[in-house]
Design brief:
It catalyses: L-methionyl-[protein] + [thioredoxin]-disulfide + H2O = L-methionyl-(R)-S-oxide-[protein] + [thioredoxin]-dithiol. This protein is mainly beta. The chain has a single domain (15-35, 49-138), classed as Peptide methionine sulfoxide reductase (Metal Binding Protein, Guanine Nucleotide Exchange Factor, Chain A, Beta Complex), CATH 2.170.150. It contains 2 helices and 9 strands. A 6-stranded antiparallel beta sheet has the order 3-4-8-7-6-5, with no helix packed on it. A 3-stranded antiparallel beta sheet has the order 2-1-9, with no helix packed on it. The longest helix has 7 residues, at 15-21. It is globular and about 40 Å long. The relative contact order is 0.25.
Length: 140
């Protein structure tokens, strides 16, 4: 794991362009690594089949088939749609050591991934993702 993406993102905008494209709340999470309050996200309790895409660039990130109810207050997934769709970075902010999840296409902050929490999932991982960092495309 790296501490920050070393290479430039395939999808890049200037700070002014990001501020124009995103709402202030979206910008705070996606571009400033903020976190939405637990239990308020649009997709926390969604059980509809479909695909979750990056709100900033549209890249597919997660699928409903890997989503599970973790009761943590944020949407939880046990695996990304494709491991190349996300980058995992060491995050030592707030006096903790965590693993940040960012979109591999635009390097926007999505949330964090945790391991060994005992959830009955195939990977024993919980990708804890901010709803505001995604859009949802229901299965046709």
């Amino acid at each position: 794991m790296s501490s920050a993406p070393e290479r430039s993102a395939p999808f890049e905008l200037s700070d002014a362009q990001w501020r124009e494209k995103l709402t202030p709340a979206e910008y705070a999470v996606l571009r400033q690594a903020g976190t939405e309050r637990p239990g308020v996200g649009e997709y926390t309790d969604t059980t509809t089949e479909g695909i979750y895409n990056c709100r900033a660039c549209g890249q597919e990130l997660f699928r409903s088939t890997e989503k599970f109810e973790s009761h943590c207050g944020w949407p939880s997934f046990f695996d990304p749609a494709d491991s190349d769709k996300v980058i995992l970075n060491t995050d030592t902010s707030l006096g903790m050591k965590r693993v940040e999840v960012v979109c591999s296409n635009c390097h926007s902050h999505l949330g964090h991934v945790f391991e060994g929490e005992g959830y009955p999932t195939p990977t024993d991982q919980r990708y804890c993702i901010n709803s505001i960092s995604m859009t949802f495309e229901p299965k046709a």
